[in-house]
Structures are given as structure tokens and as C-alpha cells.
């Protein structure tokens, strides 16, 4: 069954692979672009990633604008899409509350409104920390009654990116419920490159971690032996997103895309260091101490490490029941993640090392 989709964030790392995955399965995809003149490059990239560029059409817009800033002709074009994927986000550390909210919260709400108006299913990408309920409580998020959360205080505690992703999650769910509109949320772990090619893009957290280790900036292991940074390959994530998008049992539900056997951070750093041919850090440093050090003038810039990124290194284990059910229903499985990580490291080394 071919379906027509609308994709916001299709030019990003996960978005490029999603477009490849959708079009390889014969689905037509309208992609929202802030710079539609770059459509030919995007099509070439989708072709390189195994998709069918002939099935992609671009519309000009920006999620932070009302109605995504779509012209009426484009609004009409995308109205035949029965699935709306939102992967658009300002994904960086050090965002101000205003900037993070304008794109990640108001923008996500604008995409949700379009989906609800079109009676299309919204597939939203959250993040695995939204399933770490202890962490949410610790940073002051009231998951049961999100309207009671003091959001500016949460932005102060964890920074603009993470806070806005959490706020947008609850805001969009509340909006979709009010509109009686369908949504499904996929929560990825930190995304690793493609399991065959290792393809990953500049600015991805894992690519930055590999570059920091290669350049000798990683002097110690943040946290204890129990700390880990869960990973998922971009190909598994895309397969999961496409599966849930057409699964009626997943309406108004959430699922994790996360490889629960990701080694602890020490093991992961050792594996990356081995592929790079550098020495892995040996000693652990408590995350609270590291955050304190990073607050000192110049330290974060010298180490090219943001305190915000450390929140994702944690000890929580997750309930994978729904993911496992979907894996068996759709014969999805994680690729060999040790190999996927190795290929990602090699990709970063040969393509993104400058
Ligand atoms: N990668 C991870 O490790 C990870 C883990 C958990 C969750 N996630 C979530 O997964 C989603 C996709 O992440 P990603 O890694 O693919 O991010 P990415 O590579 O940074 O891509 C972000 C995308 O958002 C678009 N965008 C940003 N601002 C926009 C605006 N105002 N209007 C329209 N489009 C806008 C960008 O378009 P331009 O090309 O115009 O800049 C780009 O297509 C995000 O929601 C992220 O929070 C990612």
C-alpha cells in the first residue's frame, strides 16, 4: 500500500534517511524546505541513501511560522498526505529559551495543527529521555499534570534543547487530544550512523563525541561504570518510524527506538578509541563535578563539551515491551551495533574529521 507523506525536517540527518526509506518503499513524500533551491542536492542524497528521488516533491516553508508559511498552492499540494512526520528541530546546545521555544515548541505545534486540520496522522520524534521518568521528575517536570510545570525553571536546569523537546512533547499531545487527532511518538536513543555505510552528518552528538576522542579532548569518562549513552542505528530508527506510521494499534501511543544492549560509556569509548587507534580514557569523573568544571570560564570551549550534553549520559534502564512487540510484528531487528558503531567511526574519520 503506497501512502503519501509530508515530512518536516527531511533535510536533516534522520530526515534524509526517512525520505530514502519512504521512497524506497514506493511512498510519495512532500518535504518542507526552508531553502527549496537545495532540492536537487537533497534528491541526490536520497538516491545515494537508496531511495527514489522521483517520489520527492519540495514545498517552501518554516515550522516557526503560522501555517508553516506555506503558500496556498503548496498547502493544497500537501493536503493529500495521510501521514505527517515531524523531525524538524533546532538541535544544538546553548539555545536561548526564546529561540528553542519558537522552533521546537511553537514550530512543533504548527506542524501538529496542520496534521490535525488535514486529518492526517502525526508521527513525532521525541527523545529517549522523555521515557526517563525519574529524570523528568528530578528536573521539575510534572508528567501527570504538565500544566503545573514551571517551564522557565526547567530551561534553566537542562538548557534550551532538552527543555524545549520535553515541553513540545506535552504541548503537542495536549493539542492533539483536544482536537481528537491521531498521533504516534517515536523516542530515539542517540542516533548512530547507518549500519552498512556508517553515514552520519556533521553536528550529530555521536559524530562530535568521536571527533573529540580522536582529537584527544576526552580526558576522562563522565559518570560511573553504570552510566551509558543508549544508541540506535539510523536505519533501525527509520524502519520503526515507517512501521508505526501505518500501524493502527499505535494511534496515540509512544515507542522507544533504542538498543538496550548498548555497552556502558566506558565500553563504548574503548570501542571507538580502538577503531581510531587512540588511547581510551581510563578514569571516571562524576558528572556533577564535570558540570561544575564546565561552568568555569573557557573550559567548555576548550573541551568542546557542553554541560547540556551530559544529561543524556545516565543510568536508567528502559521498558522495551512495546518496541519488542513491534519488532516481532514487523520482523524488525537491530543491526550488529558493534559493527554499526565501527562503521560510523570510520565514516567520521574519513568524511568529517576536519
Ligand atoms: N540525532 C539524534 O541523536 C537524536 C536523538 C533523539 C531525538 N532526536 C530528534 O530527532 C529529530 C531529527 O533529528 P536530526 O538528528 O535529524 O536533526 P538535524 O540533522 O539537526 O535536522 C534538523 C532538521 O530540522 C530542520 N529545521 C530546523 N529548524 C527548522 C525550521 N524553523 N523550519 C523548518 N525546518 C527546520 C532542519 O532544516 P534545515 O536543513 O533547513 O536546517 C533539518 O531538516 C529531532 O526532533 C531531534 O530532536 C535526534
TrEMBL record:
InterPro entries: FAR_NAD-bd, NAD(P)-bd_dom_sf, NAD(P)-dependent_oxidoreduct. Residues 7-241 form the Thioester reductase (TE) domain. Coiled coil: none annotated. This is SDR family oxidoreductase.
